[in-house]
Amino acid sequence: MIKRLALINLATFALASIMTILYSSKILLFDLRVVLGFWWVFAITAILFALKKRSLTTWILVSMVIGIMLGFQFPDIALNLQVLSKIFLKLIKTIIGPILFATLVVGIAGHSDLKQLGRLGWKSLLYFEIVTTLALGIGLVAINISKAGSGIHLPPGYHHDLPPTTSVTWQHHILDIFPENIAKAVAEGQVLPIVVFSIIFGVALALVPGNKKQAMLHFCESLAETMFKFTKIVMYFAPVGVGAAIAHATAELGVDILVALLKLLSTLYVSLLVFVFVVLSSIMFIFKIPVKNFLKAVWEPVSIAFATTSSESALPKAMENMEKIGVPRKIVSFVLPTGYTFNLDGTTLYLSLATVFVAQAANIDLSIWQQITIGLVLMLTSKGVAGVPRASLVILTGAAATFNLPLWPIMAILGIDELMDMGRTSVNVLGNCLASCVIARSEKELDDEKLHAEFIVD
Hints:
Layout: H1 2-24, H2 32-53, H3 56-73, H4 75-79, H5 82-111, H6 114-146, H7 170-177, H8 182-188, H9 191-207, H10 210-235, H11 238-253, H12 256-286, H13 291-308, H14 311-324, H15 329-342, H16 345-361, H17 368-381, H18 391-402, H19 408-414, H20 417-442, H21 448-452
Helix pairs in contact: 1-2, 2-3, 3-11, 5-9, 5-10, 5-11, 5-18, 6-12, 6-15, 6-16, 11-19, 12-16, 12-20, 13-14, 13-20, 14-15, 14-20, 15-20, 16-17, 16-18, 16-19, 16-20
């Protein structure tokens, strides 16, 4: 039944698209109501499919379609729906402080006891920072070339809805990094002070001996798990929030926002491919890792990550296959889990790209130094949240709040977040698998006999 509904849904979408092209190209002359009628048929079939599928992602996509239809045909109603999207954003903001604190403390205190891990820990962390910095740079370059968010014509008076921008000196920027009151930082959603406090707290906790450390670590792990569940609950409201935001944006901005989202999606996938073929391929060449065998080994875990948009679902198979091609278990068991905390190449690239897109969409001109500063913030805030559902939304919202960027473009981005998540999660897994080979090679423990032997897929 689901397959049949999916085919019907696809067919109605194709028909509606063809009718739109014929109408806009004036190849066939007919009433606009005919075109809109086809789109409403598609919307109804999409709702039926979502009811049968019972998937949150499906409902988000369907709500986006309904929001677009409402924005085009009933703009007066759509303009009054913004309150629903604001409720959703308020709920997301409540997650930022607790989840950053819990995940960063667990990531640092649980994995980064540098006295114990020694050389392996330093090499891994150094490698992670270099590669994620390159990913971040590619994201910034890509969005500045494509300018995916530019060209959205804001209606008169719309800028009054944007947060006020004030000029501050570099001394203020430095002072803003350090917390004077952590409760105030959490209440106001100040991401950088929360991150700095969490890092120092995590390092301090790593130095605490015995049971006292474990008690606090267990508390932070419990807090992180609770916030994961909290996020999951909030995400049930996502279809309503996203649908309302898209309806409002479409009524206000017309087709501009839809074109911008398509450009953003294209920019992301092109930049991810550039990262893989330029950065990761160069690393494979430098560390003498055979491309063919490595790709055979990572194909299954990367496919799982792409299909499920979850790095965690691919972890067991990734660890197994890395051992098969000659990476020692002690290195695999350290590098891959730590990489899920500190080496999110695809996510870092996406966040840098998406944050600048938000500024472009609001006609806010960011200097190169402001973009670099944003990049440094994202380097810190993206650590430790690989297991968080819709982690990118949480981090992106926090970055926008930190740099006084509007939140309405983020709601539009969420409509295509699942499509972008497939690509960035796959690159996360690919990058971490390669990292395990690189660290093993640097430790002279990579088994070249296994590495060059024919990889047999189970």
